[in-house]
Amino acid sequence: MTPRWTTAVLDTNLSGGRAVARSPEGFLVNDDGPLFSREWLASQSLPVMAEHGIGYLDGEPVYVLELERAVEVEGCRWQGLRAFMLEGDHTLYKVLGYAAQIATWAREHRFCGRCGRAMTQVPGERAMYCSPCELRSYPRISPSMIVLITRGDEVLLARSPRFVPGVYSTLAGFAEPGESAEECLIREVREEVQLEVKNIQYVGSQCWPFPHSMMLGFHAEYAGGEIVPQPDEIEDAQWFNVHHLPPLPASRSIARYLIDLYVARRLGLAEPVLPG
C-alpha cells in the first residue's frame, strides 16, 4: 500500500500543490484545516521568510511557508502543533511535525554561522549553503533519552513546572557531547531525582518536533537512593502504584507509551502500539 505521506525535497519554482503557513504562534488554520492551496496563500501577502517543499500527501506536493510573524487572515486562526497532536488525524500531525522542523531549521539558518552572510537553498538537497565559506547546514536533530524507572508494581513519575497542571510523566533529557544514550540516562536520573538505576533496556524511539528532538525511549529498574527533586527542574517526583496512577501525558507521546507498556505487562493486558 502506498503511504499517504512521504517526505521529499521539492522545487519551490514549480507551481501548484498545497501548503501550510507557520509563524511563531503556530500554523494557520481555518474550518477545513491547515492545508491550503499554495496559490491562495501566495495571494495573501504574508510575511514569508522562506519556503520549502517538504513532500507528498496523497500524491499532491506540499510546501511549508515560514513567516516572520503571525498576521490576521480573514476566516483563519493560529493553532500550535501540540493541539494537532491531540486531534484524530495522525497523518496530518506527521505532516505538520515535519513541516515545523523544516521551518525551524529554515528560520535558524538564514545566515551562515561561520561568516554571517546570507545562505541559499541547495537545489535537490535539504541543505542551506554559504558560497564564500562553502559551508552546508542540514536540518538539526537533537537526540534525547526518556526513561520509565520501575520498582515492582511501582513506577517513578515526576512533574516539571512546565507541565499541564496535575500531569506526571517520565524523566527525560538531552544527550551531551561525548555521551551515549545510556550514559545520558544515568546522568539525567541522578541530576533530576538523585536515584541510581540498573538493567537499562532500549524500548523504542519517537520523533518529537518540539522543536527537533529524537526521543530514545528506555525502561530501567530502580537500584538505590532516595528521591530528591532537582530545584527548578522537577516540581515533584513520586512512586506510583500501577493500580493508582495520576493524570498522564497525551496518548500519542512516547512517555505515555512507556508507562502503558509497563502497566500492560505487569497486569497481563494487551500491549499498546508505539506511536509513529
TrEMBL record:
Domain Nudix hydrolase residue range list: 139-262
Chain positions of motif Nudix box: 173-194
Molecular functions (GO terms): magnesium ion binding; manganese ion binding; NAD+ diphosphatase activity; NADH pyrophosphatase activity; zinc ion binding
PROSITE patterns: NUDIX (PS51462)
Residues annotated to bind substrate: 82, 125, 138, 206-213, 255
GO cellular component, one term: cytosol
Protein name according to UniProt: NAD-capped RNA hydrolase NudC
Organism placement in taxonomy: Bacteria, Pseudomonadati, Pseudomonadota, Gammaproteobacteria, Pseudomonadales
